[in-house]
Write a structure and sequence with these properties.
The structure is a single chain. The chain is α/β, with parallel strands linked by helices and 153 residues long. Helices cover 39% and strands 18% of the residues. A 3-stranded parallel sheet has the order 2-1-7, with helices on both faces. A two-stranded antiparallel ribbon has the order 3-4. It is globular, with a radius of gyration of 17 Å.
């Protein structure tokens, strides 16, 4: 099932061909910005990722060329939010995780929720496709970046 979900998500992430016209060109019509699906880190949120990207000036530096669309993980934080996250971003607002890793009791690790997270990414991509607004790329931070690695394999 996981391989099928990953293949479906890969199908939805379809980069458009890059324009041969330089960004500094004076062409009368600019291509639409690239749409990038963004996945936040462990026990944070799309709002926190948006703040992090704003602080890093991503919106200032790339707004003309890239539209960043962040989604929340499908699982509410199943434990304490890291102290540095709370100290920097406050305690208000929802906190989410893409999965929770735990000891499975047999010497291994169980990644609770990863299948639902793959499904959430798949649905975000399918919804964008249905609106004619397909994603050109996907990026993540921390746990979100790990999920990107799983999706793109």
């Amino acid at each position: 099932m996981r391989a099928l979900r990953i293949a479906v998500v890969r199908h939805h992430i379809a980069p458009r061909a890059m324009s041969a016209t330089p960004a500094s060109s004076s062409s009368s019509s600019s291509p639409p910005p690239r749409r990038v699906l963004c996945l936040h880190s462990f026990r944070t949120s799309s709002a926190i990722l948006h703040t992090q990207m704003k602080m890093a000036r991503w919106f200032d530096d790339y707004a003309r060329d890239v539209e960043f669309i962040a989604i929340d993980a499908p699982h509410a934080a199943s434990g304490d939010v890291p102290a540095d996250v709370t100290a920097f971003f406050g305690a208000e607002g929802g906190r989410y995780e893409w999965w929770n890793a735990r000891d499975d009791g047999a010497g291994g690790t169980s990644y609770d929720g990863v299948e639902a997270s793959l499904r959430a990414v798949e649905l975000a991509c399918a919804d964008a496709d249905a609106k004619g607004e397909s994603f050109d790329g996907i990026m993540g931070f921390s746990q979100g970046a790990t999920l990107v690695g799983i999706v793109l394999g």
